[in-house]
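Exercise: predict the fold of this chain.
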Amino acid sequence: MTEAMTKCAPEVKSAGAGGDVQDAFHEFMSTFEAFKDDNDRRLAEIESKSADVVTADKVDRISRALDEQKRALDRLTLKKLRPGLASAGLPMPSEHKQAFEEYVRNGDDRQLRALDTKSMSYGSGQDGGYLVPDETETEIGKRLATLSPIRSIASVRKVSAAVLKKPFAITGPATGWVAETAARPQTNTPTLAELSFPTMELYAMPAATATLLEDAVVDLDQWLSSEVEVAFAEQEGAAFITGDGTNKPKGFLDYDTIDEDSWAWGKIGYIATGADGAFAASNPSDTLIDTIYALKAGYRQNANWVVNRKTQAAIRKFKDADGNYLWQPPATPGARAMLMGFPLVEAEDMPDIAEDAFSMAFGDFARGYMIVDRAGVRVLRDPYSAKPYVLFYTTKRVGGGVQDFAAIKLLKFAAS
């Protein structure tokens, strides 16, 4: 590539500078078209054995810009979903919400204690904090579903106990065919086992100034939920993928893995790429097809890919036999990119491509992974530890683990 051609390269801008979702989306799509043009040129140079390092570098720069623009687009979409902090025009708050706001602003818990007595429930008091109003808990839950990549595709169950125990039949249900009036023969006794999903404590500790607390216009419920949601989402996201189950949920990558040809219940099957720490040199997308069809048809219809940003950049360059890109950008703002016809979920806690790394997951996570939320988010007001700031020690209990080992498959970057 000549210097003149390099100077004529399309300028890569930062998406979302104007703060408009539609503008950011159109800019993202324009950058993707530039990426395709330059990547096609790179591939043509490789085939003619005259590959130019400048072209390859340009493709990588545009690919990184695509990632940045996609994150900016996601942030703008998320910002539109976030409610304002001003309380004007909002519906009349509930009795619990009014009492909770009095506690958060002034530390006065008398109304909350009175509500505990009225409902004949035991309040934990200042030693353990108070439950946030239902409105606040619901708002935190909605935002976590948007921010946390695995939570957005997994099955979520709310419980009132510390542990969710789920029985399942190892041998499957006993069934058979029978005539309308024929006697029903006795079936074999099913072999039952039990999955256990304990909930662990997750906390965040946002701080507020006296000015913020004294400002009557600020909706403190919305402020609190917006402060803790990112911290909760980051911790959850890591635990649902790589958590070891000790004081945190058990991530799906922490379970025993086995070659798909030898798969057995209790382990997660994988497909090897055929090359250590990389895709195969020839027909690299074949392993993606093998991974898709390693999943039974009943799971495939609701399946998603889960990868991190760097892995997505690598597969973005793949084409099929007809020259079409396997990775396709989102069709609309807020939608997900597609890989071979299946939605792609970007989770930064997935491993980078490396030798023996499980850098890609594919499956029906709604059936494969269970997230358990203990009802209630608790807040303890602490005006003493970090004067002049007021700390709000906010906790929720959450657990997680694989509930169907046949619903998730992994791609292992190894020769076998």
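Check your answer against the key: Residues 383 and 390 are 4 Å apart (CA to CA).
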